[in-house]
Amino acid sequence: MENVRYVYTVGMDDEEVAMRLQDADSGVLSLAADNRAYAIPVHVHYDDESERLLFRLSDDGRSEKFEFIDSTEEATFICYGDEGEDSWSIIARGAIRRLPDDELPDETTLNTVYRSLRVFDEDIADLKLVPLELVPEKLTGRKTAR
Length: 146
Known about the structure:
Pnp Oxidase, Chain A; 16% helix; alpha+beta; 9 strands; 9-stranded antiparallel sheet; 3 helices; single chain
């Protein structure tokens, strides 16, 4: 490792982790089922009052991701930032669950707390919004040491 560049990192305190999560708008949600991993980029909203991560996905009835969501006992969400030599990352682990339809915020709130919904080849009329919640049982944050 003599010639490999490296940077020391340190743990973030709870306050800084919460601040970074409040500012985060996207990350990667990792799921697993029957020895198969499935990771998807998602938009996120951190509800600091209840200390939970909220996701809003779309379903056209054919998406593989919901099979993984229903089979995953412990999901992992990762968000991070990298500004040259300064970087940070947060890993949240916990059970993920679908929220009932009546807990889906109204459209104005959805458009305020989430970035635009990414639609691929689906017909908008066929899409249903599916709210998800991950309450972290383990939350770890690291940042570049200074």
